Amino acid sequence: MRRKGIDRRAVAAIARKDIRAITSNVQVWLPMAIVPTIFCLVLPVILGIAIRTGGIDDGSDIGPMLALIERMPHSSLKQALDSLEDLNQRMVYLMFNHLFAPLFLIVPIMAASTVATDSFVGEKERGTFESLLLAPIDLMSMFMGKVMAAFIPAVTLSLASFVVYGIAANIAGWSVIGRPFFPHVNWLPLMALVMPAVALLAVAITVLISARTSSFQAAYQMSALLVIPLVMLMIGQVTGVMLLDTASFTLIGIIIAIVDWILIRLIVSRLDRSRMFESQVK
Amino acid sequence: MDAMVHVEGVGKRFGQVQAVRDLSFSVRRGEVVGFIGPNGAGKTTTIRLISAVLRPDAGSIKVNGFDVRTDGDQVRASIGVLTEGAGLYPNLSGLDNLRFFAELYGVDDPRRPEALLGAMGLAAHAHRRAGTYSTGMKKRLGLARALIHRPPVLLLDESTAGLDPEGITMVLKEVRRLSREEGVTVVLCSHILHQLEMVCDTYVIVDAGRSLAQGTLAELVRDYVRQRVVELETDLSLERAHEIAARFHARLVAPSGASRSKLSFTVDRPDDVPEIIAAASSAGRVYSAVRVGEDLQSVYFRVMEARASEA
Fold it and tell me: Do the domain assignments include residue A192?
């Protein structure tokens, strides 16, 4: 007879099965790979080429950036910038360490929502959801398995992207700064707290969307709306409206984690096999 | 009572549609039951209610002594279900599909997936993706999935649909073996009634979510077939055939002019059938004797006609 409480064996089996499904389906892993490749490799390479050709030396293009640095409150980032010798170095440091930070969060969001969409809506589309619901495992374990299946690849991909981005950024900026300059300490709360929390948020929202959509495409398109807050955050960063330091990132991470907790509690409280079966199985 | 599946006064409604109403039946341990009825009769809904994935609005269902309302996981652990779609993961190999479900069902024997693949004749295709399997192979893999945890109850919903004759025979043989050798209780839904006749001990005939008739084929024949027809292939002369018909108050249908022909005797009393055969044998040669209208398909239509006339 099966044990009460979370069935770890079932959680691991579902997570493993879904992760294998990702790696074997090009429609799933390709969108996941494209975004980090553009962000972590293509972008630094383009900027590296621009820096080498002297593109950012032109004072007329960097007016807003200068104003941003001027407005910056006293912080570790400001200190780091002040320690740099010239404007060029500051610009490179600012771009790679500060401006792209919110943009980086697209990586966990895209990865988590892509996998979660395939994981939840895909079961319905393939007609396998019935087999899953027929198994003698509690819905909480099933849900946990599905969340793990999206969360683990999203976090892993984000961490790998971070390493690649770091190497690419340091190489791209080397000719200007002359030493490794990435990452700034701001990236610590970003990667340790905000990134996992954002990945979990993307999973939770995708689950909610998936419960109301019947096709993979519809769910995927709706999940793409998740990047809108990030774009706004990015605009805030670039324009200086919202300057995020270590404390801000930590606070944002904690707030998103609380939202995650509330959303997951909400989803778990609504898990009902009979209702799910009636609404999700033809 | 040794009922492995006990359904009592069950009702289930989806919006305005009453899919199942006041349905009751029992299935004994090791019994194979044919659950039959037209499309929309509530067969699949009943299978899902027994599997504890749908909650009944009324009545009670017990499987292996567990209540579907309160012991859902124990009920599902007691049941193996094979539906028309087979419910397999197309991107996983046949072996990985079984390994996955073995984990879900808490199967501790690591050799069970391979053993089942071998038993289903799929060992050579173990590492091929299930999505590339033929319909028959998918059904066999689906049956292996349903059996992965050695369930005492097997529910097969249109499980032979789309199969070739070899595939059908294989599935039905396996059902028979499981019932006879392992004491597995089987509920089998199918529209192919002559297939059911090969394996089922009893039948439940449903329509519009309601049970119309239940019992063995002999019981259904007794209750629903009023006149018995026996068709003899014989060299009896028509004159002798008429004499026999008159003696048993039988209606005789006979082609004219043939020396060896099929004669059809219709009687009201079942006991007259062997008497007619005996009389014909003593008066001439009887090459074959076939009881007509007592097969499952004929009885099914009799039950449906009876319901229509009641309505």
Answer: yes
